[in-house]
Design a protein that fits this description.
alpha+beta, Ubiquitin-like (UB roll), 5-stranded mixed sheet, two-stranded antiparallel ribbon, binds FE2/S2 (inorganic) cluster
Length: 129
């Protein structure tokens, strides 16, 4: 079953880390963070990452649950997430910035690393409900 390693975007701001840091997840693993902010989820292929996080008792941001806002956005740092039809992100955001919507996103590779709660990124602000 694919493993999704997650990190809360709020932690980047608190720690002064950058989304582009190559060792972001190594630093996160060593920082003694709460399970809510950093950890791993087992997510079946075809299962949505947001739902899996909720099933584990985590409270990740969302609004529409249908690929039409940016509340559930995450940045993929490693691996690949496949999305159902979405109408809110630009090609550049998906292909260059690696933004994915967790409400309609499922792991495509066995290991995925994501920074969730990415709705706080400046360029997504105009699409957060
Ligand atoms: S919650 Fe709106 S796109 Fe995921």
């Amino acid at each position: 079953m694919p493993t999704v390693e997650y990190l809360n975007f709020d932690v980047l701001e608190d720690q002064g880390w950058d989304m582009d840091d190559d060792d972001l997840f190594e630093k996160a693993a060593d920082a003694g963070l709460d399970a809510e902010d950093y950890g791993t989820l087992e997510v079946n292929r075809g299962e949505y990452i947001l739902e899996s996080a909720e099933a584990q008792g985590y409270d990740w941001p969302f609004s529409c649950r249908a690929g039409a806002c940016a509340n559930c956005a995450a940045i993929v740092k490693q691996g690949e997430i496949e999305m159902d039809m979405q109408q809110i992100l630009s090609d550049d955001e998906v292909e260059e910035k690696n933004v994915r919507l967790t409400c309609i996103g499922t792991p495509e590779t066995d290991e995925v690393q994501i920074v969730y709660n990415a709705k706080h990124l400046d360029y997504l602000q105009n699409r957060v409900i």
